[in-house]
């Protein structure tokens, strides 16, 4: 920050030295680049574009009658001050030749003529346009509602942050998905299940009296990518979250978030009528239970008028649910939906369920449980489905429910926190994972029936649509536990707004805003990010392997995990490796999970010759000596991919090393340290996996492959009782 | 920060506007005053003193051959850059008329002549002196060792931060206490027992590979007040802390801390030889156990050559210990002491023990357990004694062990974290509490046998001395959970260096550095701080009441707490209130705890007419209608004090309100919010306590006193299952 470019002109070079002196003088109090600012750093733009931008943004005409209007105005002032070195002058109306105009038809006479056009962009859409009015060149950030203006401001700032030309600017945006929601798996004691970014951001103890300024910055970050909802508490819910005391705390957060278009939701424990209400049952058909939920909904909406609704994990992994009373998931969801309906609230009912008894194939459970309930849910119920049929693995096929329940809005549930992807220390950009799932073609209504079109409602004509991301946010200074993990929060938001965006483009925006818009930075970092997910798949779960992490905390490899309370929580259940081969036979002659997909998809998955190789061992049990497309036998290919994963982490290290001096030292240092951790853990994954599978098949390592440095027993003996994020 | 004063001269007014513009331009990235900088903010000094300071510090001559030398040089440059607006010029030798000289006789030829004088200041002492040498005026920061120079640098910077004159400066300092140690009650999963400042600062999961920059700032903060040791893990210890894996993590922290004179210690679980070593016993007389600890000590010192030693909680509240094998505390402590002795390590053995069976008076237990062991400990054992005989209450008499074990070095254990004093949201400055204890006269060797003289070794001639503070530090951005709680960390450090300092003077320094050196700020804030502890005593535990907090988490009032696993974990055990009176009779006709004090002290405590009124109910059971010194009956006086406590919090609010504009907005806002919480909780304490005691004595409230707004049952029903910091 100490190498400054003068604000403008040549005449002022004289005071440059003095400015540096003063800034040095402030250094004791200066801000390190510690990641807190996320992608909203607003540092001075490159001289090449600064003049052009400054010419446009000398004057600002912006309403400030509502909290959202003030948020938009403040953000544009903060952004332009940082990016251009000075804030625009506020005017009630344009005076000079050029001005920036914010507003809606109601709030701005300059925007009013666009009423019809803005109407078409919907409640959250916006328009950016440079236009001539009465001899002036005006940059309009216009929307039907205030929130659209705020979204538009963030879009405009992004264009500046990434150094885009604004000539003849014309942008129209509206979100493809209605509910773009973070799921925080935060417990009331501040512990975050599967959290790798410190404790919960919510300081329940000091709420509602103290509202940490972080809550505002959290809302700004979400608004900047269009996220419009947040579930504050863990799906493994505590009933106390619905007590009056905690509702008052949640209401304080809702008050902070409201100007940023961010609505509060809560996870509801199905048995809350018993635990909080003192009822003898939580049976959804019991009138007393129904009354309790109606009263509770009334109570919530009195405190939080724009409350979003409930997220529910029921009859899954020990949580209570309607099946405890012999009722269906639909009866359970509808109970809550009826209570919320008078207030326009929604229920997000999770499809992540599996039987109490260990099934023959857990991958089939959710489909079997829910597909018959299509059409049985109330209109304000979304069924929230994880991207794949198991559990957020580095790679899964898309969930077979997508496309299979046309009468039910299916909400996507992605995991942003990297439970199975190296926690916060592994650099794994999830954009390509999300993109792969969203672009997968279910073929439910013929070609082009992508998961994205199921989720955005266009395939089956649903207006109620949603996408959820299990948040990776905690009280760590970086928000997400590492500098690169904020890219996953960012990408989730951008894809929830527009599921057909390119994850590469999103990464490029994020890098430019987060590190530097210089192409010498953007290009290599984006390349590194784009390759990172496949790299993690290589060193963890190549060729369709899945759920081979260590037990419980999922930290590191555990392909030998066996025994314990249920078989489908073990690794051997999933990889089924033995002396002869490896992989889960889900073909028609196996568990027949393939039949849950549309016929044409199922045929592809079912055929060992046609199945995509990255999913080979997901769907097939394959002999170790079977030749794969590379010409290598399966065993050699597996080892090759493990090793390639390690090498590719080393390549990331080399890339990052070359960026020293181009990225500020504090962040460069942390990323480099985390990459070292990732390198060592990738090697650990490779070595432990090779040692284990070799102990089963007795095969020699391919030529040139190093044997693991330790015997298998060494890897099996490693214990990490305090690995972060474990459920408890 | 945006109102700037030009660096110097008049000519430069011209660029002032431009500088403001540029700073505005950086605002997007500017640092809020969020408390992270603690008392080391180093903001520009007042114009009145700036010129004088700048004249002195244009040149810096400082060695940089060792890490500690570099730390001292970097700190002085950082400090002067911030305080004066520019850094001094580094020189190998002075060139101009005035210079700042750092060094030791070994590192600096200019300091070498002071060798004898510096020798007398000891290993950590230092000298600040302005002196004339060869026509030059030199400001010397001189010490025998590098660490003394670093301490001297912080002292010098403090003088500038508080606006002191440096004319003819002559300061000689050496610490009165050798081991000035923080005790972190941090668990390996990141939870901090009795922590109200977020999670643990130690990110065990990413150590040793990643060393968070916070660790450096933590070390700087400690060095700035002379704290030279830190126990990283909870006294309720996990054996795993002593495993090789965790020792490597601790060693990484030790490497970060070493340049700042901060040594690492660990809490040792007495049964570690069983849990880690696989032995069948942890009996201190077992040769295998002795060997295990010797080997473990060797292993530790190979990784951490300056390891400080072990802190041990044994046979207390369920922890294992020597009594499990029929051995004494001395035999247990000596086991570890013998293992550490070859490496000059020490054992800090805690005296906080009480019997498995509920005793007739728990206040007597530690004394009874330990006093007979005087002389039985190895020379490298410190007995670590809490300030009072119960447990860190808002007020206790000094612990009777002080003065009673002349042949054993007694280490003071203060609690900095406010387990019983309102957590992080109550503004309670603990300096007066510490001062009250340290200045208490044990009379062990006649008048003047203060606790401070026991602790600093001067009373009984001990060279091994220590003071421990249970840290209030976590990963909260403010470090201590609130802006004012860092004052308690600060005061602990200053008093550990010099136990006879005035807590008011310390507060004045802290306020000047932390908020502003302007007298309009320092005076009212110091007054507020100095009154705050008595205010908390008033609304929580007036007149010697104690241990009447809610069960377990100790959040809020619980005078009705009864039952449960043991009587001495209840409130009724301690207050003994009934229809007729209140208080614990510890006189000769009661539990006779008074007899544990020196005779002259005991006589004073034993006599209801002479006992200090603030300790009345600690030592006496008193009828409700007894007249106190105010002329009021006990009941009226009790209610009066509760109410006065609430009023005094309101007075703090009013004081703080008047400082709006004089204290930066972000910190002013948080403190104001926390004071609101404190006000409401003080009222809750008052109302619940009055309601409860009134339910016992049936007396009317004194005239003018408001009845509690709720019935007693309301207060008793309040539940806070997720109050922070609870042991678990």
Biggest sheet statistics of chain A: 8 strands, parallel, barrel
The number of distinct helices of chain A, counting runs of at least 4 residues, comes to 22
Uncertain segments of chain A: 1-29
Shape of chain A: globular
Strand line-up in the sheet with most strands of chain A: 7-8-9-10-11-12-13-14
What would the average pLDDT of chain A be, to the nearest integer? 95
Q: How would you describe this structure to a colleague?
A:
- The structure is a homodimer of 728-residue chains.
- Chain A is α/β, with parallel strands linked by helices.
- Chain A has 22 helices and 16 strands.
- Chain A has helices spanning 16-25, 47-56, 67-84, 115-119, 146-161, 213-225, 244-257, 272-275, 287-303, 329-340, 365-370, 431-439, 451-455, 486-497, 503-514, 519-540, 572-575, 599-606, 616-619, 634-658, 665-697, 712-717; strands at 59-61, 89-90, 98-103, 126-133, 136-143, 170-173, 179-183, 229-231, 263-267, 309-312, 346-350, 381-386, 410-415, 466-470, 581-582, 622-623.
- The longest helix of chain A has 33 residues, at 665-697.
- The interface between A and B is large, with 65 and 65 residues.
């Amino acid at each position: 920050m100490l190498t400054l470019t003068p604000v403008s002109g040549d005449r002022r070079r004289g005071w440059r030295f003095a400015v540096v002196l003063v800034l040095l003088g402030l250094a004791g109090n200066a801000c390190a680049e510690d990641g807190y600012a996320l992608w909203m750093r607003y540092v001075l733009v490159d001289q090449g574009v600064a003049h052009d931008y400054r010419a446009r943004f000398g004057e600002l005409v912006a309403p400030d009658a509502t909290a959202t209007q003030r948020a938009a105005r403040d953000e544009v002032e903060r952004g332009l001050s940082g990016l251009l070195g000075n804030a625009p002058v506020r005017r009630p109306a344009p005076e000079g030749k050029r001005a920036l105009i914010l507003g809606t038809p109601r709030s701005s006479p300059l925007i009013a003529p666009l009423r019809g056009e803005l109407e078409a962009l919907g409640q959250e859409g916006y328009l950016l346009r440079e236009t001539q009015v009465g001899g002036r060149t005006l940059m309009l950030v216009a929307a039907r509602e205030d929130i659209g203006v705020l979204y538009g401001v963030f879009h405009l700032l992004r264009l500046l942050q990434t150094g885009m030309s604004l000539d003849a600017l014309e942008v129209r945006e509206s979100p493809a998905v209605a509910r773009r929601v973070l799921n925080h798996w935060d417990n009331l004691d501040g512990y975050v299940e599967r959290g790798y970014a410190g404790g919960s951001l919510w300081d329940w103890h000091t709420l509602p009296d103290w509202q940490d300024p972080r809550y505002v910055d959290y809302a700004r970050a979400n608004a900047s990518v269009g996220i419009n909802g947040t579930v504050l508490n863990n799906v493994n819910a505590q009933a106390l979250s619905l007590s009056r005391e905690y509702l008052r705390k949640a209401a304080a957060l809702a008050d902070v978030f409201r100007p940023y278009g961010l609505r509060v939701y809560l996870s509801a424990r199905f048995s809350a009528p018993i635990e909080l209400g003192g009822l003898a049952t939580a049976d959804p058909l019991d009138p007393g239970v129904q009354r309790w939920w109606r009263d509770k909904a009334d109570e919530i909406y009195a405190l939080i008028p724009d409350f979003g609704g409930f997220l529910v994990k029921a009859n899954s992994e020990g949580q209570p649910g309607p099946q405890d009373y012999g009722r269906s998931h639909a009866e359970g969801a509808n109970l809550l939906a009826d209570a919320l309906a008078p207030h326009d609230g929604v229920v997000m009912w999770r499809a992540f369920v599996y039987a109490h008894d260990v099934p023959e194939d857990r991958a089939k459970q959710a489909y079997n449980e829910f597909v018959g309930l299509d059409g049985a849910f109330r209109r304000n119920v979304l069924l929230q489905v994880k991207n794949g049929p198991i559990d957020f693995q580095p790679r899964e096929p898309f969930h077979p429910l997508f496309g299979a329940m046309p009468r039910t809005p299916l909400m996507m549930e992605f995991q942003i926190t990297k439970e199975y992807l190296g926690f916060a220390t592994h650099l794994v950009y999830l954009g390509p994972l999300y993109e792969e799932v969203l672009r997968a073609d279910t073929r439910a209504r013929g070609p082009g029936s992508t998961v994205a079109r199921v989720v955005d409602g266009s395939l089956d004509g649903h207006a109620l649509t949603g996408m959820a991301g299990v948040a990776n946010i905690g009280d760590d200074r970086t928000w997400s536990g590492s500098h690169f993990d904020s890219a996953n929060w960012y990408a989730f938001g951008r894809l929830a707004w527009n599921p057909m965006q390119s994850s590469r483009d999103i990464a490029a925006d994020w890098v430019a805003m987060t590190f530097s818009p210089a192409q010498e930075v953007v290009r290599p970092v984006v390349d590194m990010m784009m390759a990172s997910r496949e790299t993690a798949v290589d060193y963890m779960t190549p060729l369709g392997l899945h759920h081979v992490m260590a037990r419980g905390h999922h930290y590191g490899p555990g392909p030998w995990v066996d025994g314990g309370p249920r078989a489908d929580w073990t690794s051997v259940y999933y990889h089924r490796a033995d002396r002869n081969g490896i992989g889960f036979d889900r073909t028609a002659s196996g568990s027949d999970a393939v039949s849950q997909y549309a016929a044409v998809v199922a045929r592809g998955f079912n055929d060992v010759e046609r199945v995509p190789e990255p999913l080979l061992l997901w769907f097939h049990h394959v002999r170790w000596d079977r030749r794969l497309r590379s010409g290598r036998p399966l065993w050699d290919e597996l080892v090759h991919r493990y090793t390639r994963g390690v090498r590719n982490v080393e390549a990331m290290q080399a890339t990052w090393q070359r960026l020293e001096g181009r990225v500020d030292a504090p962040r460069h240092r942390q990323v480099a340290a985390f990459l070292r951790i990732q390198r060592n853990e990738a090697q650990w994954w490779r070595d432990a996996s090779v040692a284990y599978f070799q102990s089963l098949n007795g095969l020699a390592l391919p030529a040139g492959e190093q044997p693991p440095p330790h015997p298998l027993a060494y890897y099996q003996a490693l214990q990490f009782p305090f690995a972060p994020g474990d459920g408890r």
